[in-house]
Amino acid sequence: MSDRYRRALAALSRRGDLEWLKCPHAVHPLYGRFQAPYMAWRYKETTLEIESYFHELTHRHESRVKWLFDSSGRNWILAPERLIREGGGTSGDQFMESVVAIAKSDQSFCELANSDLDSFLSRLEIDMKTQ
Question: Is 124 helix (H, G, I), strand (E, B) or coil?
Fold first, then answer.
């Protein structure tokens, strides 16, 4: 379990009971290169307040690449807009293929986006402490 995963788990759990979380390592443990980052999760129960918080966070947070929050499916996802666009959405094999393709072809983008995700997690940790 990565430090990023632990941070995400702790911060997201303060908003509700998590049923599922996926938050990959910043650097691939076998290949040693930056991965295209994203964070996907599912709460056991959701509210409009929780959903609105994540939409607002995505819009107000300063980042180096454009990020999107998608709550339209069973799982919620926070990911770079490029990853969602090139992946044809947020679900299925095409999304995961784009994660791999971007990691192979654009390490600069992945490094910037990973820095952004760490910044998002820091903002979540701060916001969750004040809740």
Answer: helix
